[in-house]
Specification:
The protein has about 220 residues and is of the alpha/beta class. The protein is built from seven helices and seven strands.
Length: about 220
């Protein structure tokens, strides 16, 4: 189970876009190709490819994407109208590539629009609330694992979800007991991937570290 947190703060990516344009002009004058930095459009395309590959390579994989823009955070994939379907069968929910692209681009556009409409009055405007998004990712994982009756130690081999292969996780979330004897043991290994473009918020240091400690305690692997 992976929760991908993506920083899409408008000011941060606009700054990278300006730097990219300047660098590309300089390198083009010398006949050289672009070497970055990456712009938001490229990152979104990469995330779409990654999401499709991740969801397709492993039958039991579950993926959610949280976007953060300045002080705004939101679950952008799966969208609200698709989330119930994901919760019913996350281990077999392999959406079309088109749906991943639509959910991601629509969700990112909405959160960027909300962030751009708010004028920040403090000196840290334009810096993403990564601690808030990190906390959201932890809450999503904890809520799901708790509902699935796995506790918070899904990475330990002795903690498994026992489920009927045809019923999936919905049987666990609903605490449904089945008379079928064909059981399959499966373990969720929660991970969080943080992709950040903006500068750190110094005021969020304690909150971010608390999230890191919580991840360690609950054996949730975090990549950045």
């Amino acid at each position: 189970m992976l929760v991908l947190v993506l920083d899409v703060s408008p000011l941060a990516w606009a700054d990278r876009d300006l730097k990219r344009t300047a660098h590309d002009k300089e390198r083009a004058a010398s006949g050289k190709r672009s070497v970055g930095p990456a712009i938001l459009e490229e990152v979104l395309e990469s995330v779409q490819v990654f999401a499709s590959a991740y969801s397709s390579l492993e039958r039991d994989a579950g993926l959610l994407i949280v976007a953060v823009a300045d002080g705004e955070t939101a679950l952008v994939y799966p969208r609200k109208n698709h989330l119930q379907e994901w919760l019913r069968h996350p281990e077999s929910y392999v959406p079309e590539t088109r749906r991943i692209k639509e959910d991601l681009t629509t969700g990112v556009a909405e959160i960027i629009d909300r962030a751009a409409s708010k004028v920040s009055s403090d000196a840290t405007g334009g810096q993403a609330a990564m601690a808030s998004a990190f906390s959201t990712a932890l809450c999503i994982i904890n809520r799901f694992l708790d509902a699935a009756k796995t506790g918070v130690s899904a990475l330990q081999p002795e903690h498994y979800i026992t489920r009927n292969d045809d019923e999936g996780v919905i049987a666990l979330i609903g605490n449904i007991k089945s008379n079928k004897t064909n059981k399959q043991a499966s373990a969720w290994s929660p991970r969080i991937l943080l992709i950040q473009a903006s500068e750190d918020r110094s005021r969020d240091y304690n909150a971010f570290m608390n999230c890191a400690f919580a991840a360690v305690k609950n054996q949730i692997v975090v990549d950045g």
